[in-house]
Amino acid sequence: MSTDTVWFRPPPRPSHTPQPPEQPEPASVDLTIDGQAVRVPADWTILQACGSLGIDTPTLCYLENLTPVNVCRICVVELAGARTLVPACSRVVEPGMDIRTDSPRVRLSRKMVLEFLGSSVDLSTAPQAQAYAARYGACPERYGQPHAPSGPGERDAREPGHHHAPDGSAAETVAQPVKVDNDLYIRDYGKCILCYKCVEACGTDAQNTFAIAVAGRGFDARISTEGNVPLPDSACVYCGNCIGVCPTGALMFRSEFELRKQGQWDESRQTRTDTICPYCGVGCTLSLHVQDNRIVKVTSPLDVEVTHGHLCIKGRFGFEFVHGGDLKADANPEG
Ligand code: SF4
Ligand code: SF4
Ligand code: FES
Questions:
Q1: pTM over 0.90, yes/no
Q2: Where are the beta strands (DSSP E) in 25-171?
Q3: What is the rounded distance in angstroms from the CA atom of residue 25 to the CA atom of residue 44?
Q4: How far is CA 192 from CA 42, 63, 122, 169, 335, in A?
Q5: 314, 284 in Cβ contact below 8 A?
Q6: Distance CA 235, CA 89 (A)
Q7: Does the CB atom of residue 239 touch ligand 2 within 6 A?
Q8: What is the whole-number distance in angstroms between the Cα of residue 89 and the centre of ligand 3?
Q9: Domains of the chain
Q10: Is 289:282 a contact under the CB 8 Å cutoff?
Q11: Which residues, at least 6 apart from 276, have a Cβ–Cβ distance to it below 8 Å?
Q12: Does the CB atom of residue 277 touch ligand 2 within 6 A?
């Protein structure tokens, strides 16, 4: 083809507007859930199919902006013909599935998961887990008195293969001192249910920073920075996306932590206002949580197409500039 053809004699304009290629109709699947026949897209999960029927399936490690990791097993349902219960959050629907979401076996399994969590983890700032525990009649107290908390750094030093089985006189727990090593957020792993959400958000699902991962094995498994270094020495860039997805309050804004410590945190006095982050052209949606005319934390709605609830350090923590100083110091005039 000569240069003349390309640059000086363009082909005639098409006689019709170009159309995108035709998309095939998405395949659908017929299945039965709790005796109700339902037809859903073939790439849906059981969780989505249940949702389309208005069935409220409990989830802890699942979040719509993260890849399912299937670790909490609270969402399990009974599938006819399957040996084990299946996780609704990640199992894709198949033709002819016959699913029961509220059978005695399902209820017992969910109850036991909640009891194991409730006996070993502090769920005091996890309202969703508390509501599930009430729904399924979980009774963590039947595992006995909680074991004494671990000392500073004790759990972090445990190595695989060095675990000693407890003597059964008390319920083993993950209770330990809160990690406060920076001005922006705290890590209270006595409240961690090991849902992996923070690891996912720090990794390929959002931030691609990989500052945290799961260390240890079995009951000693815990979320850790590389080599258990303090956050300021780690790869953390303080986007706070881990806080945004944490379902238990194990990861918490320092501002919220300080207000709670002073007994001043009161969600009934808080308002939430959506606005646009002014710091750069991405234009993320910020939800400002305001108490007593002060911004106390910033989140972002999950259903925003651009960032799916994730932010960077400026949007997440830059609110402190609105108050012209250090929010922690302001929140605690004595301290
Ligand atoms: S810190 Fe929070 S988000 Fe991370 S694993 Fe624990 S409970 Fe899940
Ligand atoms: S949160 Fe960060 S990426 Fe989003 S608009 Fe603000 S500065 Fe830009
Ligand atoms: S929500 Fe399905 S395994 Fe956790």
A1: no
A2: 28-33, 36-41, 76-79, 86-87, 98-100
A3: 15
A4: 35, 16, 8, 23, 28
A5: no
A6: 30
A7: no
A8: 6
A9: 172-331 (3.30.70.20)
A10: no
A11: 283, 284, 285, 286
A12: yes
Q: How confident is the model at residue 159 (pLDDT cuts 50, 70, 90)?
A: confident
Phi (first) and psi of residue 147, to 5 degrees? -65, 155
Q: What distance in angstroms lies between residue 53's CA and the mean position of ligand 1's atoms?
A: 30
Q: What pLDDT shows up at residue 333? A: 39
Residue 186 in contact with ligand 1 by CB distance below 6 A: no
Does the pLDDT at position 322 exceed 90? no
Cα 92 to the center of its chain, rounded Å:
21
- What atom in ligand 1 is closest to the CA of residue 197? 3
Output the CA 140–ligand 3 centroid distance in Å.
20
Tokens read off for 101: 């979401």
Secondary structure letter of residue 26 according to DSSP: P
Residue 15: which pLDDT band, with cuts at 50, 70 and 90? confident
Q: Is 121 in the pocket of ligand 2 (CB under 6 A)?
A: no
Supply the residue whose CA is at minimum distance from atom 2 of ligand 1. 246
Distances (CA, A) of 278 to 35, 91, 281, 315, 327: 51, 40, 8, 8, 19
Q: Amino acid identity of 215?
A: A
pLDDT number for residue 31: 98
Which residue's CA is minimally distant from atom 7 of ligand 1?
192
Mean pLDDT along residues 167-181: 93
Ligand closest to CA 207: 2
Q: Which of 94, 38, 90 is nearest to 59 (CA)?
A: 90
- Does position 150 have pLDDT exceeding 80, yes or no? yes
Q: Which helix (H) or strand (E) element contains residue 106?
A: helix 104-120
What is the residue-wise DSSP string for 113-137?
Answer: HHHHHHHHS--TT-HHHHHHHHHTT
What pLDDT was estimated at residue 13? 79
249-259 b/e with 16+ CB inside 10 Å = b?
Answer: bbbbbbbbbbb
- The rounded distance, in Å, linking the Cα atoms of 237 and 209 is 8
